[in-house]
Amino acid sequence: MKEWNNNFDMNCKIENIIADKCIVSVIEPELLSGLTMTLKEGICTFNLGDVSYEIDSSFAENVEFLSVFTESVKKILNSAEYEKLENGNWLYTGMSDWGKFLLVQDKTSGYPVSFRIPEAGLSITFSN
Hints:
- By secondary structure, the protein is mostly beta strands.
- It is 15% helix and 48% strand.
- A hairpin with a 2-residue loop joins β1 and β2.
- The termini are far apart.
C-alpha cells in the first residue's frame, strides 16, 4: 500500500474534444493557472506559456497520482462494478494499487461528480 502525504486543492477545467483527446486546464491555484495537460493517443503533453513537455504513457506509470488515476479510469472502462445510487447517479467501484476506488457519475450529463480512493486519502470533486 502506498502512502499519500500531500494535501492540496486544484480547480481544473476538463474538456473532452474527441473520444481520444482530453484537455485538463488548471484554473486555481494562481501559481499554476494556465497549465494544461493534454492526453491524446497515449501521449501526455504539459503546456505552460511557451514551455511544453511531452511524456508517453509508459513514463506516466512512474508518476504516482497520474498513475493511480489513469489505472482506475482504465478499470472503470473495462472491469469496474457499478450501481445506481438513490439520487439516480452512477457509482463505479474497483481496486487499484492504492486501494478501492469510487467514481460517481452524474445521471443526466454523464460527467464525473467525484473520484475517491479513501485508503490513500485521495479525493477529487468535479464541478461544471
